[in-house]
Design a protein that fits this description.
The complex is a heterodimer of chains A (405) and B (453). Chain A has 405 residues and is mainly beta. Chain A is built from four helices and 27 strands. In chain B, a hairpin with a 2-residue loop joins β16 (259-260) and β17. The radius of gyration of chain B is 37 Å and the shape is elongated. The chains are: A mainly beta (405), B mainly beta (453).
């Protein structure tokens, strides 16, 4: 006998059991969130709990047959059709930051998949107001020798001195507080877009410091921040540059490794070796300034899906992941396709394997009566023992390829 | 006109409880706003969607567009459609028309906007959007008795409101989702506590808003509303509400009156009191309350920090007076400038417990300082020196040796254990004193303030 249970999506506690459910249908496809539909009489007890966002489970006797998140209801005639999508759909609620593919590429597929279980929480500074004022995630802001302008949608520049020249260097320090981020689990990375032309006379660098409180060095002392490296600028009027210049800084930036410190200090440094050049017609001012176009701090926050059986490593390095504000589902699917893996979310846990059908070509198919089998069921025979079909704990039957099939 | 409900369907495409709105540009070099409808997220889960607004003019415009978009996509009512077959109607139905649908069998009444039409000779199938999000829940109620009551119910209208206009009043009321009402009847009278009858009936019909014009200006009008069904039954009347047609150019608020559920009393006021009975906020008559100037009878009064909280208003928690002494000895000659840069002895400082939600924000100095000096040896020489520059900066210390002049920059919860003044001075000695000693004394008041986080 089939029963349908409605569960709280957060606690998975049972809110209602709908014993009069009929005509359950569902399908399974590799690396997909697929439909589960079931019809319930309109006056069925407990139907009021079957609302959007709740979890729906289909049970055959005491065996769980399918589970998913309820998305649609359709009232027609005397019945209500409930439509859910298997729990992989929940991975579509997570979004990567913009242009995040490079940050995921070049890693083992299993690491990429695990990296998708927490949510991303980007904090971006772009407008003049964001450059100059405290925001909801910031505890303090210090700066020296910089100014912000509306140009380009909001950019950070060097300030000018009394003679109208850009000052040789300036900095701005922003202090982010993880306690303002709901469900914070760690600091992911710092990314920025700025000027650092290969043959120019202007330079930008970034430094950071992680702290749990107490005193930190003044940002005018760059040796107190990471990375503590320096070099001479390549000009006839050189100065010492400190910090991280960055490779693909607006995509990869500085990886913070998931550090869980409460405070993250980010210091933006601007340098110029040109205080004298003038544009045509420029009067009263001189020099050139580098610009910071945007700063982004990416934090990670608690996701709703936990890690199930995921291999420690797959041996496949993921390349060219498309992750421009993509869903975690899309990223995991891409990673699995590159590594020839399949994934499922069952009971709130993500499982990854080459196949969920067993070994040596065995496949699992859905239970009798659900009307949906593997893609080409005619090519398989159900394994029987003394005439009784062999099935697993979830009621799915073991099959083998037909001889000559 | 007959109506038959065909289907009631939810859709899911585009539904989200949080959006990441992106302005023009690419990568991270663009404005970005993340908004969450907390109420919807709690009900349906945190579902993020990314929406690009390439036409956003600036960051504020992007936020405005994002808020409008989120309000739409996080409301399940916008993802729900009701399909109804209508027959026997004598007027053509139109896209965008607001219609009310009652279904006695299913037990609901609702209002929606026609989003599509399929017209045949004898019937028209209409699709309604914008129906209430809980409509399915109403339909799904299982209890037969409850359903019967819902289907048969004709309660008094709710959410009755009356607003004055220059020439009359506007009455708004709703029959409610669990009502079989097909219309409302509005009664108006100038008699407080009137009993409605045929002579007081001012408006009748379907809808929820009734404009009643031609009423005398400045005369209070009392209103009661009842609902009726398609079988000639009436609901009970609502309690009366009232308003005064204000006339063209008349004042919105008549000075000296406060309206509280139809009461007109000069002493009327709305009070907020603590559990101990202390009044911390009053709206209305505030005569005689502490701090209220004589002659002010009406307004808003409150106890700052108890009933009244103003964002950004500093709350001074501690006042410290700090003295500093700086002594110079030596042989001075006339017209000599003596430079000094020194700090006072650190004093211990115990900050009060910072309340939850507040943090140390600023350290202030008053604009005027007591600064004086004397020549101590020989004591007889007075006015021998003048300050060419005297600059004092207060500093706080945390840890064992780190001083800061900007406590607002430190993280919330930082403990300060010392306070001192730092003095930079240049003194011009007008009269030489061989072997003399100068003694400077500066004293001032330091204010520590806490602001809400």
């Amino acid at each position: 006998m089939l029963t349908v249970r409605i569960l709280n999506p957060l606690t998975r506690s049972v809110l209602a059991v709908l014993p009069e459910a009929t005509d359950p249908r569902y399908s399974r496809r590799p690396r997909s969130a697929t439909e589960i539909t079931v019809s319930v009489p309109r006056d069925a007890p407990g139907l009021a709990h079957a609302t959007r966002g709740r979890l729906l489970e289909v049970w055959r006797g005491d065996e769980l047959e399918a589970s998913g998140r309820l998305e649609l209801r359709d009232v027609s005639g005397d019945s209500v059709t409930l439509t859910a999508y298997t729990e992989e759909i929940r991975l579509k609620d997570y979004r990567t930051p913009a242009a995040y593919g490079a940050a995921l590429s070049g890693r083992d597929a299993a690491d990429v998949i695990r990296a998708c279980l927490d949510r991303w929480y980007p904090i971006r500074l772009k407008t003049v107001k964001e450059w100059l004022e405290l925001s909801e995630h910031m505890r303090s802001r210090l700066s020296s020798g910089v100014s912000a302008h509306d140009a380009g949608g909001g950019t950070l520049w060097l300030a000018r001195d009394a003679q109208g020249r850009y000052v040789r260097s300036g900095w701005a320090r922003y202090m982010f507080d993880s306690s303002t981020i709901p469900g914070f689990t760690g600091w992911d990375r710092i990314r920025w877009a700025s000027d650092y032309p290969p043959d120019g006379l202007v330079y930008t660098t970034v430094q950071y410091l992680l702290s749990d409180g107490g005193a930190v060095p003044h940002p005018s002392d760059p040796t107190g921040y990471l990375p503590n490296v320096s070099w001479q600028s390549p000009s006839t009027n050189p100065q010492t540059l400190y910090g991280e210049r960055g490779v693909l800084p607006d995509e990869i930036g500085i990886d913070l490794g998931g550090a869980t410190n409460r405070y993250l200090y980010v210091v933006l440094r601007l340098y110029t070796d040109d205080q004298t050049s003038q544009e045509e017609g420029e009067e009263g001012t001189s020099g050139s300034s580098p610009r910071f176009y945007a700063l982004e701090v990416v934090a990670r926050t608690q996701g709703e899906i936990i890690a199930g059986d995921i291999p420690a490593e797959t041996g496949v390095t993921v390349q060219a992941i498309n992750a421009d504000s993509a869903t975690a589902f899309d990223v995991i699917r891409d990673a699995c396709e590159q590594a020839n893996l399949d994934f499922q979310v069952v009971a709130g846990a993500l499982h990854v394997a080459e196949s969920f059908g067993g070994e040596d070509g065995l496949h699992l198919v859905t239970s009798e009566g659900t009307r949906v089998l593997v893609a080409e069921p005619d090519e398989f025979d159900i394994i029987t023992v003394n005439g009784v079909p062999l099935h697993d704990a979830q009621g799915r039957y073991y099959v083998v390829p037909k001889v000559g099939g | 006109m007959k109506a038959q409900l065909l289907t009631l369907t939810e859709t899911t495409d585009g539904f989200a409880t949080a959006i990441i709105a992106r302005g023009p540009g690419s990568g991270i070099n663009r404005w970005q706003v993340r908004l969450v409808n907390e109420a919807a997220a709690a009900e349906y889960g945190l579902r993020e969607a990314v929406v690009d607004f390439p036409n956003a003019l600036d960051a504020d415009h992007l936020r405005q567009l994002a808020e409008e978009h989120l309000a739409h996509v996080s409301d399940p009512a916008n993802f729900q459609e009701l399909t109804v077959r209508v027959s026997g109607h004598d007027r053509p139905l139109r896209i965008g028309q607001r219609v009310r649908v009652s279904d006695g069998e299913l037990g609901f009444t609702t209002t929606g906007i026609i989003t599509s039409l399929d017209v045949a000779e004898d019937a028209t199938t209409i699709t309604l959007g914008g129906v209430p999000a809980n409509l399915l829940d109403v339909v799904n109620r299982r209890e037969e008795e409850e359903r019967r009551q819902v289907a048969l119910g004709l309660p008094a209208p709710d959410q009755v409101d009356v607003q004055p206009t220059p020439t009359g009043i506007i009455v708004s009321a709703r029959a409610g989702v669990a009502s079989r009402a097909v219309g409302l009847e509005v009664h108006v009278s100038t008699v407080n506590g009137f009993t409605p009858d045929a002579s007081t009936r001012a408006a009748r019909g379907p809808g929820t808003r009734f404009v009643i014009d031609g009423l005398p200006i400045g005369v209070r009008q009392y209103v009661r509303v009842r609902a009726y069904d398609d079988r000639g039954n009436f609901s009970p009347f609502t309690q009366q509400v009232s308003a005064v047609p204000r006339g063209v150019g008349g004042p919105e608020l008549v000075a000296g009156t406060i309206e509280l559920t139809n009461a007109e009393r000069p002493q009327a006021a709305l009070s907020v009191k603590t559990t101990a009975g202390a009044e911390v906020l009053r709206l209305g008559n505030i005569t005689g309350k502490p701090g209220v100037p004589t002659g002010v009878n009406y307004g808003l009064w409150g106890v700052l920090g108890s009933g009244v909280f103003i964002e950004g208003a500093p709350r001074i928690l501690q006042v410290r007076r700090v003295n500093i002494t700086l002594t110079h000895s030596g042989s001075f000659t006339a017209n000599q400038v003596v430079s000094s840069d020194s700090t006072s002895t650190a004093e211990s400082l115990t900050l009060p417990t910072v309340p939850v939600g507040y943090r140390l924000h600023a350290l202030w100095l008053p604009s005027e300082w007591d600064v004086y000096y004397r020549v101590t040896s020989p004591a007889s020489v007075i006015n021998a020196a003048l300050f060419e520059r005297f600059w004092v900066q207060p500093q706080l210390r945390y840890g064992t040796s780190t001083w800061t002049a900007q406590p607002e920059m430190e993280p919330s919860g930082t403990t300060f254990n010392g306070i001192r003044l730092r003095v930079v001075t240049r003194t011009w000695v007008r009269q030489g004193v061989s072997g003399g000693a100068l003694n400077y004394v500066a004293s001032g008041v330091v204010l520590l303030a806490l602001l809400p986080e």
